[in-house]
Automatic annotation (TrEMBL):
Start-end of Basic and acidic residues biased regions: 68-90
Region (Disordered): 68-100
Origin organism lineage: Bacteria, Pseudomonadati, Pseudomonadota, Alphaproteobacteria, Hyphomicrobiales
Protein name: DUF1013 domain-containing protein
């Protein structure tokens, strides 16, 4: 990966303000035009840009700046980075180790039986196989069909559970919802679900005997008066 200068215009602002480098040297290092560097020095350009110290960012050393200040013909060079970021690898077909390639037919048979909604391209992405092999296993024309045993590709280490779930979810989006007959169950009728065995009987209201109530209150009052008389003596 080629080295590139971070924030070239901000770096040019710092070099103009803090070094004695020529406009051509700064322009060559920051990939700018010398007139643009001159405009920065005159305050006509990059007025709102804060200078970025290339020494602090590790992109330029003090010795390199001092050498360039002494020699106007010296071209500044970027310092070697202390940490190198590896180039991102392009995503290609899934690689299957040699030790696990013999398990791929068993994994394909498991996927075909347990997830018939998966397309051949999805199975191919999961276990790293070809469409012709998938068709042979599905049609039972594979040379080793009699000895194949369905095995979970996640258990075999051919793919992760997350990848499998994602492919199954993608394949299930376009499928219609299963009917009640396919699920092996039917809805009960309203008459069957109604709770007809319970009956609610309303209790008959009892008539209140007014005379009995007043007689009860009168007896309680007389008992209370008798208790108060006993307490006085």
């Amino acid at each position: 990966m080629a080295q590139t200068l971070l924030m070239p215009k901000a770096t040019a602002v710092w070099l103009v303000d803090n070094t004695a480098l020529s406009f051509d040297q700064i322009a060559q290092f920051c990939k700018l035009h010398p007139l643009e560097v001159k405009a920065i020095a005159d305050g006509e350009a990059a007025q709102g840009i804060k200078g970025l110290d290339p020494i602090a960012t590790g992109q330029l050393s003090r010795d390199e700046i001092a050498r360039a200040e002494k020699d106007p013909n010296h071209k500044l060079k970027l310092s070697e980075p202390k940490v190198r970021v590896p180039d991102s690898k392009r995503r290609g077909p899934r690689y299957t180790p040699v030790s696990k390639r013999q398990d791929r037919p068993n994994a394909i048979l498991w996927l075909v039986r347990n997830h018939p909604e998966l397309k051949d391209a999805q199975i191919s992405r999961l276990v790293g196989t070809t469409k012709s092999t998938i068709e042979q296993i599905r049609d039972r024309t594979h040379w080793n069909s009699t000895n194949l045993t369905p095995m979970d590709p996640v258990t075999l280490g051919l793919c992760s559970q997350i990848d499998l779930d994602m492919e199954v979810e993608k394949a299930s989006k376009g499928r219609p919802l299963p009917t009640a007959a396919e699920l092996g169950a039917t809805l009960q009728s309203a008459n069957e679900t109604e709770n007809l065995g319970f009956s609610y009987e309303r209790e008959e209201e009892k008539e209140i005997d007014v005379n009995a109530v007043f007689s009860k209150l009168q007896s309680l009052k007389s008992d209370r008066n008798q208790d108060e008389d006993d307490d006085r003596y």
